[in-house]
Design brief:
heterotrimer, A mainly alpha (496), B mainly alpha (152), C alpha/beta (335), B: 152 residues, mainly alpha, 2 domains, 6 helices, C: 335 residues, alpha/beta, D-Maltodextrin-Binding Protein, domain 2, 11 helices, 12 strands, globular
């Protein structure tokens, strides 16, 4: 069967009455679970697996895919409204989404997030449809050396995340990197900095750090300011309507990050979180007005929201065409496939074209449903901000606590959360930015492991990077991003 | 005075770096590793020490806004400590007493402490919120939050 | 305000005091037959979605839906420490007949690596239900066609071959390779093993960064069907059943007399009453033979391996000894 008739059979699945119904159920449940504290796509899929047992495999998988990207879609509301990311992929969303909400533009922020997610999702499905067989080669082109280079490139952007002193940004980043070295080292099995505490062996979960540094630190600020005469602004939801100017502003990041996010999603191991961060820092790098980032920039909100949804579709490339789960979430999704007797892999497109293409086709529908479902809900969801301050503070604290508890069901992590809240508060007090901390925390762990994997393979020789064109060019770009501002600064200095 | 804040912060960072380095040098070795578990941590430790030095030497003055951020009244400090204390009690008792009771009590007490005067709304919100979340997690999603003293 | 606050705090204390009651221990009739009197909590020592969690949830489902056990069996996740947190939790439920957890080789390996206070010896084995096996995979155009080709090269220079697994040295992926390679005469103290926790092992083999991927049998089937990789050997006693699966040669038939079983079964807290153990043994046997369970096992591709409490304990003892010896040799056994 050729690709075209395969695609047609896929559309038949997706547009059948049953198909539409279950795509709807999938994205609805996904969005809903994604909004819950601590429950992201992994739990959403795991929860839904038993329900699919007796279903037709193609319909069931169309639904499961919907649960997956629905959960990523749903996670952004709490980031924007409360500065409390419920899912790792939406941490970068809070950087500009929350400041926007505080300026009384919550409605607009949620609308931008929804539209950016929708566009990222849809563009990437087109890419998925056209290029999956080709891209499977890209997905396996990344070995340890290439991953190291990619993480290195990401880390070179730290300076750009500073909104004051660059030294403080570097200190934050180094601290973030240090925190991620806690736990069992994968290459040797040595437990590092665990003080014999079994709770630390698996390392500290990303959400513990993110909710502590962002949500709890924000709670402190809210507690301090709770009696300030409200100018009414922070409770204002504002209009949902985007002006022409707004659309123009977001069109750049959205179109770029749909592609970039997708490509990063294709790489096994990278995923939505890394994609959203890389999107944020690249947009900040190339923006004409980078100083607006972190203060409610439309670009800064649209970029990560586009990228995390695009990466979600990207993650289907290695899953469907190679049977390789690129992340914890797709590993659970792979489990869902297996339960239904479907084995994703290089032969799926020949053996079960209706499933392969059905999932892809359904994602068009799913993204439209998500948009239609979410836009009208925005005024209701953003009513959260109307809750009186004291009550809101209590609820944000509880949201963060449940969010962490639902990951490990372990109270130790809750104490850690509180500790990171305190650290986050002091970092704010002394103007150490939190974003570089969290960026280094995400990229650092993978960077260290991939570097040591690479050097183990090469018997300790750095020459291995010279033999790998992709790795070499990524490192070169990284070095340029460091050196370029230095050179530019120097020239300015000379002129003056 | 202004320059001193940065230098004090630099000293704190340096102490963190030194403690981290000490721990790194005490990591057990693994004979079969080409690059052992301690290499990157040592590098990070020295890097942090270097940044601490740079911060210490940084003559850039703090802006007024930065200084303003640190002005907290004694009352506010007490507020923060009490809220932190309530979170600690919540965490400590969560698995013993159970999610529903603790969450209801926490939301009510914490809001009350932060001067929320509408007691009826407060009671309704705290009860409905915790019951709703509990029901959702435990019955709909089958992810069990601690039941504690309640029989369901 | 102050007063109201005080009242609330006092009521909090009251509630605390009330929370300290404890649960009953089930019912035992005159013949010494024990039956549960309250819900039985199954702990998965990991977060939702993984192998332990899935096994626990499936077992709970079959017990409930087939009415093998006349109580609810809620699954509780206790993640962290590679299982150590969940084990510590169960160790704290001493003698309770209403708690159990799902275990597999890490229950032996993690304590030997010095990462858990509790090991299989601290718990009451109830029954084993599932067995999986390891597979060693290379790229389809690799120079080796069987384990002996590979091990011959490694005997000359162990460092000439790189091996990747998902978990760290001293854990399952590593140890299954070490166990077989050692039996073939390779110097296992000098292996070039890298770990890729982001599940990039298969990718690394496909793009040629690494030579051998050590993993579970099920993960390899589709890649073999597509002709991308070949399986040099598996760690099972004899060939497995099923399309593609039956083509995988065992290490034993290649003259390497060694196996590695990824067993999965259930354990109770320390000192569980004999009568309760007998009860669970029978129930797990019933589960093992039920249509519903067989169907689930096929869906997930799990092999059958039922052992009762006594057989299980003996089996675990043997496994632990052989792992201890290997870890000592590798210098990985830690206190």
């Amino acid at each position: 069967m050729d690709a075209f008739s395969g695609l047609m059979s896929g559309f038949q699945v997706a547009f059948s009455l049953e198909g539409l119904l279950f795509v709807f159920i999938g994205v609805f449940v996904g969005t809903f679970i994604g909004m819950m504290p601590g429950l992201g796509p992994i739990s959403a899929i795991a929860i839904m697996i038993p329900i699919t047992y007796s279903m037709d495999p193609s319909i069931a998988l169309v639904m499961m895919a919907g649960v997956y990207y629905g959960a990523i879609f749903g996670g952004s509301s709490s980031s924007i409204l409360l500065n409390a990311p419920g899912v790792a992929g939406t941490v970068a969303t809070a950087f500009d989404g929350y400041p926007m909400a505080k300026q009384g533009k919550a409605g607009k922020a949620l609308a931008i997030a929804a539209i950016a997610s929708f566009t990222g999702g849809t563009v990437s499905v087109v890419l998925l449809m056209l290029f999956t067989p080709l891209l499977s080669a890209v997905a396996i082109s990344f070995g340890p050396a290439e991953y190291f280079a990619l993480m290195f490139l990401g880390l070179t952007a730290i300076a750009s995340l500073a909104d004051g002193s660059a030294i403080k940004a570097f200190i934050s980043a180094t601290l973030g990197f240090m925190v991620v070295t806690i736990g069992i080292d994968a290459q040797t099995g040595t437990s590092r900095f665990t003080f014999g505490n079994p709770n630390l062996l698996e390392g500290i979960d990303f959400l513990v750090v993110a909710l502590g540094l962002f949500a709890l630190a924000e709670v402190c600020t809210l507690v301090l300011n709770r009696n300030e005469k409200d100018d009414g602004q922070s409770k204002n939801i504002g209009s949902l309507r985007l002006s022409k100017q707004d659309i123009k502003e977001m069109s750049g990041p959205v179109s770029r990050q749909s592609f970039l996010g997708f490509i990063i999603g294709v790489l096994p191991g990278a995923g939505a979180t890394i994609a959203s961060f890389i999107a944020y820092i690249t947009e900040k790098k190339i923006a004409k007005n980078p100083e607006e980032f972190g203060k409610g920039s439309i670009k800064g909100l649209a970029a990560p929201e586009t990228a995390n949804n695009a990466a979600t579709s990207g993650a289907f490339v290695p899953l469907l065409s190679l049977g390789i789960p690129g992340s914890g979430t797709t590993a659970v999704l792979l489990g869902a496939f297996l339960v239904l007797g479907v084995q994703p892999g290089p032969l799926l497109v020949q053996d079960r074209p209706e499933i392969f293409w059905g999932i892809i086709a359904s994602m068009y529908v799913g993204n439209i449903i998500l948009l239609v479902l979410n836009l009208p809900l925005i005024p209701y969801i953003s009513k959260i901000l109307k809750i009186p301050r004291p009550l809101l503070i209590s609820l944000v604290i509880i949201f963060s606590l449940i969010g962490v508890y639902a990951i490990s069901f372990n109270t130790f992590d809750l104490y850690l959360l509180l500790a990171f809240g305190v650290i986050g508060f002091f970092m704010r007090m002394f103007s150490f930015p939190a974003a570089p901390f969290i960026l280094a925390f995400i990229l650092g762990g993978m960077m260290e492991q991939s570097l040591r994997q690479t050097l183990t393979i090469s018997n300790g020789s750095f020459g291995i990077f010279l033999d790998k064109p992709i790795a070499l060019s990524l490192i070169a770009v990284g070095l340029l991003t460091i050196l370029f501002p230095l050179l530019k600064g120097r020239r300015k200095y000379k002129v003056s | 005075m202004l320059a001193k804040t940065n230098q004090k912060a630099a000293l704190v960072v340096a102490v963190i770096a030194i403690v981290y380095l000490l721990l790194s040098f005490n990591l057990p070795g693994y004979t079969n590793a080409l690059i052992d578990a301690d290499v990157i941590p040592k590098g990070l430790g020295f890097l942090l020490l270097f940044f601490a030095l740079l911060l210490y030497l940084d003559k850039k003055n703090e802006t007024e806004a930065d200084k303003e951020k640190r002005k907290i009244s004694k009352q506010h400090v007490i507020n923060l400590l009490v809220v932190a204390g309530m979170i600690l009690i919540y965490i400590f008792l969560l698995e013993m007493i159970g999610f529903v009771v603790m969450t209801t009590v926490f939301i009510f007490v914490c809001s009350l402490y932060l001067d929320y005067k509408h007691h009826v709304t407060n009671v309704i919100t705290s009860v409905v919120f915790s019951l709703a979340i509990y029901g959702l997690f435990n019955y709909l999603l089958k992810i069990n939050l601690p039941a504690g003293i309640l029989p369901f | 305000m102050k007063k109201l606050f005080g009242t609330a705090a006092a009521s909090l204390l009251l509630v605390t005091a009330a929370g300290c009651g404890n649960s009953s221990s089930g019912a035992t009739d005159e013949d010494g037959n024990w039956t549960p009197t309250q819900p039985i909590e199954i702990t998965a020592p990991a977060g939702p979605g993984g192998g332990w969690d899935t096994t626990a949830r499936m077992v709970s489902q079959v017990f409930e839906e087939e009415e093998i056990i006349d109580q609810r069996l809620p699954v509780v996740n206790k993640a962290g420490g590679g299982g150590a947190i969940g084990w510590a939790y169960i160790a704290g439920q001493e003698e309770s007949p209403h708690h159990m957890f799902v275990g597999s080789p890490p229950l032996i390996l993690v304590p030997l690596n010095g990462q858990s206070e509790y090991s299989h010896e601290d718990f009451t084995p109830l029954a084993n239900v599932i067995a999986d096996y390891g597979a060693f995979v290379v790229k389809a155009d690799a120079e080796w066609d069987n384990l002996n080709d590979l091990f011959d090269d490694m005997k000359e220079d162990p460092q000439s071959v790189s091996i990747v697994g998902t978990s760290s040295p001293g854990s399952m992926d590593h140890m299954q390779f070490v166990k077989i390679a050692k039996a073939a005469g390779v110097d296992v103290t000098n292996l070039k093993y890298i770990s890729d926790p982001e599940s990039g092992g298969l990718t690394s083999v496909l793009n040629g960064s690494v030579d051998v991927f050590t993993t579970g049998v099920a993960e390899t089937i589709e890649q073999v069907r597509a002709g991308k990789v070949k399986v040099l050997g598996i760690t099972a006693e004899e060939r497995l059943e099923g399309e593609v699966l039956s083509d995988f040669p065992t290490a034993i038939e290649q003259g390497i007399d060694e196996t590695f079983i990824n067993w999965r079964g259930f354990f109770g807290p320390p000192g569980m009453d004999e009568a309760a153990v007998t009860y669970y043994e029978e129930k797990f046997k019933e589960l093992n033979d039920s249509e519903a369970w067989i169907e689930i096992r096929e869906k997930y591709g799990w092999g059958e391996m039922y052992m009762d409490s006594e057989e299980y304990a003996a089996f675990l003892e043997e496994e632990a000894e052989s792992m201890q010896a290997l870890l000592d040799e590798l210098g990985l056994a830690r206190e």
